[in-house]
Amino acid sequence: MPLMSPEQPVVWSTYVIVDDAAETTAHVEEAGGSVMVAPMVVPEQGTMAVYVDPAGAVLGAWQPDKMSGAELLNQPGAMAWAELATRDTDGAKQFYPAVFGWQPSDSDAAGMTYTEWKIGDRPVGGMMAMGDMFPAEVPPHWGVYFAVEDCDDSVATVQKAGGNVVMPAMDIPQGRFAGVTDPQGAPFYVMAMA
To answer: How many domains does the chain have?
Structure first.
């Protein structure tokens, strides 16, 4: 969708499916977040809302009607993961369980703590602390990963199409990924799953 103001950055918006957008909005406010867009009916499609967590990361909620949300995941060309980058992981571990019922599960990933958000045993997203690799002017945010067949080929395609590489390709146990931006500057990740 078009930008709502000139100050708004170009980004991918992440939405979480909820049963009741109004109830979720109440949980956001009770947990110390703020409402950027109050629950708004998108005719015949569903109800959306947009929130800001206490650290400043923006996340949407989607209460489905005819449009259920993403139906294909973890396949080349489809979304594969959503990840919160924040400077307040402890605060996030209070906020997101209170709002969505997610439970944090920490593990060591190459010398840093990585958190998976889970519903029961099922991972639904991740979280990492924003360390020195993030410039001070980069706010807390939700990032989106798209599955690709070949990470390096996808990075080359991004560059040929006018995008940029912001994090060179690297290998992790889950696969090979890189951070890129589109020609307008919207950041996202490409990942070839292991």
So the answer is: 2
